[in-house]
Amino acid sequence: MDDPKTAARWVSAWSTSPIDASLSESGVLDRLGVAVTDVSARTVVQLTAGGTHVRLTLSNIFGVLPLHVAACTIAIGADDARGIDPATLRTVTFGGQTHVRIGAGESCTSDAAALPVAAGQTLAVTVFYRGINAMRTIGLIGGCSHAELGNCTRRTLLHMAVPMQHTADSGAYEVIPALTEIDVLAAAGTHACVIFGDSTVANELPRLLAARLRADGIENVSVTQAAIKGDRLVADGVAAKLLGGAGVKRFARDVLAQAGADMVLVKLGANDLIHPHCQSKQGLLTPVTFAQMTAGYRALADMAHAQGMRIWFCELTPWKGYTRNLFGRGDDIQWSPEYDALRLELNAWFQGADCPADGYIPLDALADPNDPDALVPAYTTDGVHHTPAGQRALAALIPEDIFVT
C-alpha cells in the first residue's frame, strides 16, 4: 500500500463557484434555463498546481432538466484563447464512456486523463452539448469561454466562436458553463488554499497569490477561487440569483468539497453590511446585526475545523466613495460613518480572543493614509472593487508563513 505521505494525491488546481443562471424571477428562463442546442463551449483557465493527470467536475446542480454531454476534451491552451496545442489533446471520459448524462441537481467528476500540466499553465476544456439542453449552472469568474455550433471538441481553433462574457457597470462576468473544478494528480505534500468571498476577491487574486508563492519557492500550494460577486455571508442574494446563495449555505459545497483543500481565506461580509442601505433594495433587506454576522463567521470556522481545515478571516476593507451605480441609474448608496460602524466592529472582533478563526489577515495597507475610511485611489475602480494594482497589493499582504506547514 502506498504511503500517504509520499503518494501523489488529487488536488484542486482551479475552481469557480456555481450560480443559478436563470435570468428572471419568473417565466421560462426561471423555470428552465438558457437553451443550449448542439453547441460546444471551450473554457480556458490557468492552473495553480501541476500534476501528471487531470480530472474535471461538471455541474448541473441548479438544473431542472438533464444536461447531455456528448464529448469532452482537454488540451494545453494556445496564445489565442480560442485555440489549443493539438499535440496535447486528450479525450475525457466519464465512467469509461465518452458521453454522460448529468441529472438535474447533480454533478459529475470525470475519469483521470493522462496529461502532464504545470502550475501557471493554461488548460482548455471543450465540452459538446448534444440535443436540447437548459443550461442553468454557470460560473462567472476565473476563465475565458467561447461557444461555437457543432462538435468542436477536437478542433485546433474555433473559427466562428462567440465570446461568453458580459460586461456591466459592476464589472466583467466571464460566463463558464457547467465546469466548476479541475483537479490534478499532484506530488505528495501538495495542498489547496481556497479564497472564499465576494466581488472584492472575485478577480485575479488566486492566480496572483499562487504566482507570488511559486516565485518565493513555495511550490506545493494551489490557490483556488470560491468567490461570487454580490454574495453575502448570512443570507442569499436578493433580487438576482446571480448573486449566489448565502456563504454559510454554500461553504460546504464550494470549499470543503474541493480536492486537497486544507486552508481557506475568507473575505466575505461587505454586501451584508452595504446592501440593506441601498435604495434599490429598500423593503427587501433589513440591516444585519453584529450577532448575526459573528454567528455566520463562527459557522464557517466550525465547518472548516470539523474537516481539519484551517481558516483565516481577512479584514473587511474600506468602502467610502462607493456609490453602486447600477445600469446608469445614479447613486444607489452613499457612505456614512453610521453605515460603516459595523465593519469596524467586526474587524476588531476578528483580532480578538473570541474569534474562532486560526488567524486574521490585516489589509489596512490598502486604505488611503489620508482617509482611512477609503481605499488608496490607485487600488480601486469605484471605491470598493480593486484595480489590477489593488489586486497585486492585496496578494502581497497575505503572509507566506501561513502556507508553510
Give a structural overview.
The chain is an alpha+beta fold and 405 residues long. 18% of the residues lie in helices and 33% in strands. The strands form 6 sheets. Strands 3, 5, 6, 7, 10, 12 and 13 form a 7-stranded antiparallel beta sheet that branches. Strands 1, 4, 8, 9 and 17 form a 5-stranded antiparallel beta sheet that branches. Helix 2 crosses helix 7 (388-397) and helix 3 packs parallel to helix 5. The longest helix is centred in the last third of the chain and has 17 residues, at 290-306. It is globular and about 55 Å long. 45% of the residues are buried. The model is unreliable at 25-29 (pLDDT under 50).
List the helices and strands and how they pair.
Layout: E1 9-15, E2 19-20, H1 28-31, E3 34-46, E4 51-60, E5 67-76, E6 90-91, E7 100-102, E8 106-109, E9 113-117, E10 122-135, E11 137-139, E12 144-149, E13 162-163, E14 165-168, E15 171-174, E16 176-177, E17 179-186, E18 191-197, H2 205-215, E19 221-227, H3 247-256, E20 261-267, H4 270-274, H5 290-306, E21 310-314, H6 337-350, E22 359-361, E23 367-368, E24 371-375, H7 388-397
Parallel strand pairs: 18-19, 18-20, 20-21, 21-22
Antiparallel strand pairs: 1-17, 2-11, 3-10, 3-12, 4-8, 4-9, 4-17, 5-6, 5-7, 5-10, 11-16, 12-13, 14-15, 23-24
Helix pairs in contact: 2-7, 3-5
